[in-house]
Amino acid sequence: MNQRVEKFGKSQPLARVEDQRLLTGQGRYIEDTMPAGALRAYVFRSPVAHGEITTLNVDDARAADGVHLVITQADLVDAGIEATLDGALVKNIDGSKAAAPERPVLAGHRVRYVGEPVAVVIADTMDQARDAAELIEFDYEDLDVKLDLAAGGAEIHPEAPQNRAFNWGLGDKAATDAAFETAAHTVSLQVDDNRIIVNAMEPRGCHATWQDGRMHFYYGGQGVWSMKEQLAKKMHLPAEDVHVVTPDVGGGFGMKAMPYPEYFSVAYAAKVLERPVGWMSDRTEAMLSDNGGRDLTSLAELAFDADLKITAYRVHTHCNLGAYNSHFGQPIQTQLFSRVLAGVYDIQTAWLEVDGIYTNTTQVDAYRGAGRPEAIYVLERVIDRAARDLGVDPMELRRRNFIAPQKFPYKTVTDETYDVGDFNLVLDRLIKESDLAGFEARRAQDAAEGRYRGAGLCYYIESILGDPSETADVEFLEDGRVNIYVGTQSNGQGHETVFATFLADQTGIPVSAISVVQGDSDRIAKGGGTGGSRSVTTQANATLATVDKMVAAFTPFLAEEMGVDEEAVDFDGETFRAPGSNLTPTVLEAADLARKKGRVDLLRHQAEASLPGRSFPNGAHLAEVVIDRETGQARVDRYTVVDDFGNLINPMLAEGQVHGGVAQGLGQAMLEHVVYDADGQLLTATFMDYAMPRAEDMPWVDFTSEPVPSTQNPMGMKGCGEAGTVGALAAVANAVQDALWDQGIRQVDMPFTPVKLWELMRDVSQAAE
C-alpha cells in the first residue's frame, strides 16, 4: 500500500488526451451518432402553465405530409406502456408519507407547467414534424397558477393539499430549541437562493432503433444503467433486450442524470415503426423543459454562548419542486443538504426543516451539486452576518468554531463522519495566497475613485456521494493496446485522461496504449455513472482492485516461465522481477507471452471495489467585489481558492474543474436568474433574456492545493467536481454584502445585477435624506 501511495504521488499535470478529438470536431455527440435516415421527433408542448385539457385532436397532424406517427398519452396507455415517470419520495416529519402525485409521460387530462409534453410527432424531417404539430387541435380550460413558495394557493395536485409535497426534518429539534432559549447571542438571516437554468452546452437528445428484437437507445446522459432499467420497466422488455449507449456528452451537471418524457416516447416510436427515431432539444425547448436548479428560501439561525462558540444551528427552508416530484431529486436535495448542514463547524445540535412546495414550473433537481451549494450558501451567509452583528472578524469567528484536527474522525450532528481535516491550515494558506493584507489599501483606492470594494469568505465542505462501489475491467488486445472499461461516465471532466493515467501509473503501461471505454451497457455490465464528485475516487479504487487481481493472475504464470517459485515473483509497478531470473517482463510483455502460450484467461481482468466511507473535500474561497456607486455595476475583481482535495491524480485537471465550478457559481451570483410572469410564462427562455457569464465577467481564479489525504480510500483522494460552485456563491455574496455594509445596506440576495444594486443604494441614500 505504501508503494502504491508513493507512486500515486508522482502523478503529473498532463494535458487532456481527449481534447485533440473534441476540439477538432471529431467528438461523437448525439447528433453525430444519429442513424442515417432516422425519423425526427417534435414535441408539442403546453402553451400554458395550468389548465384542464378539453380537446386534444391529432387526426390532422397524423394525415400531414411525411408524418409516420403521432403519440399521445392515451396511445401509450393503450399500448400497455407504463406511461408514468417515477417520482422520489421522503417521509414527513410526523412519519406520514409525502405526496405522491402521478406524472404522466405525456399530459393526459391536465397540464401543469409551460412546456409540459402533450404529444410527439414523428416525421421524415424536423420541418415536417413541426408543421404537423401546428395542426394539432388543443384546447383547455385555464386554471389558476401557483408560483410562490408558500403553502396554499391554486391546487396543482389533489394528492398534495396546500401544494405541500413534504415537510421533512432532520436533527434534534427539542435540543436545538432549548439551546436557542439559553443562548447568550442569537443571529438570524433569511436567504433567497435564486432559480437557475442548467444550459449545458449540448442540449438533451436521444435516438432509438428497434432491431432484431432489441431496443438500442442512445442518449446524452450521466450513466447508462439507470436508463436501461427504466426503459425495460416502462416498456415491459427483458433487460437483455435493452442496449443503452451514451456517447460524448456536452455537459450534464446532474440535470442529465434522470429519464425524461421524451426518451420513452422516442423509444416507443422506434419500436412501433421499426425505424430509427431521433430527437434533439433546441435551446428554448431546453430552457422550458430541463430540470432546473436552486429556487429556495431559507431562514437560518445561529445560537452562541458567551465565548461566541456556536451551540446550535436551525434552518427552515421552502424548496420549489416544480410541478412534479423528480426522478430522484427530492431526497437528493434534502439528503445532500443534511450532509453538509453544519459545515466545518463544531456544532453540537442542529435542526433542519424543509417544506417542499409544488408550483407551476419545471422540476428542480440536482444541478451543479444540488444540496451542497444550497446548504453551504445558507450557513456561510448567516455566519458572516453573525460576525457583523457580534462585532467579530469573520475569519476569527470561523476559526473559533472550526472542528479541531485532533477531533477527527468527527461525527456531525447530522450523523455524517468526517474522516480528516485541517481547516486552519487551509485558511492560513488562503490568507497568504489572496494577499488579504493588501485589501484595505485596495479598498481605499477604490473609494477614492467612486467605487465600493468588499471581501467575502466562504469555507465549504462537501461529500462525495452516490454508489460507493465501482467496477474496472482491463483487456489486452492483439495489437498491443489495452482497453479499460469503466462504470462512470464522462460529461466533459477529462475522464479519458485521468483513468488512463491512473492505470499507467499503477502498471507501467504507456498512457498512449490505453483506451478508456465507457457508456455502453452491452460492453460494461454495471456502473454508477457520474454525479456527486464520485467518479475519479470510486473508479480509481476499482482500478487498484483490478490491478491487484491482474498481478495475482500473472504471478504464477510468470513464475513458471521464469523458473522460480511463485513467492519469489514481485511486481514493482512497472515490471515483474524475481531473484535468480533475468526475465523482467512488463505487463504488456506478460500479456503478449500469455497470448502466445494460449492463456486467453490472462488477457482480461475485472474487479469490483467499494469505498469504506465517504471523503469530504473542503476549502476556502475569498472573493473581492467592486461596485460602481453611480451605476450599481459590480464585478468580481479578485478570486482566490485554496482546496483540500487530498491527493491529486492530475493537478491541471483539478484546477480546470475548480475554474469551471467557480464560473458557474459566479454566473448565478452575478447574472443568472429565471423569471416567470404572473401567468407562469417563462420570460427568460432565450440567451437574449437569460444572462450567462462570459469571459469578460470572470476574474482570474487563483487555485492552490493544500492536501490533507483522506483515510477513506487507499489513494488518499477526495472529489473535486463540484467544489468550485459550492464555495463561489457565498464568497461572492459575502463580498457584495461587505462592500455595501458601511452604506447601511443589511440584506442583499443573488443575483447582484446592476439595477438591483443601484436601487438598493438609491433607496438607502434617499432614506437618509
Give structural notes.
Helix content is 31%, strand content 23%. A seven-stranded mixed beta sheet has the order 3-7-1-14-11-12-13. Strand 18 (410-411) and strand 19 form a beta hairpin. The radius of gyration is 28 Å and the shape is globular. It has 20 helices and 29 strands. The chain is an alpha+beta fold.
Oligomer class:
single chain
Q: In percent terms, what proportion of residues is strand? A: 15-25%
Poorly predicted regions: 1-10
Rg, alpha carbons: 28 Å
Helical percent range? 25-40%
Number of DSSP strand runs: 29
Report the major sheet: 7 strands, mixed
- Count of separate DSSP helical elements: 20
Taking all residues together, what is the mean pLDDT?
92
Tell me the overall shape.
Answer: globular
Distance between the termini: 70 Å
Structural class: alpha+beta
Q: What is the topology, as strand order, of the major beta sheet?
A: 3-7-1-14-11-12-13
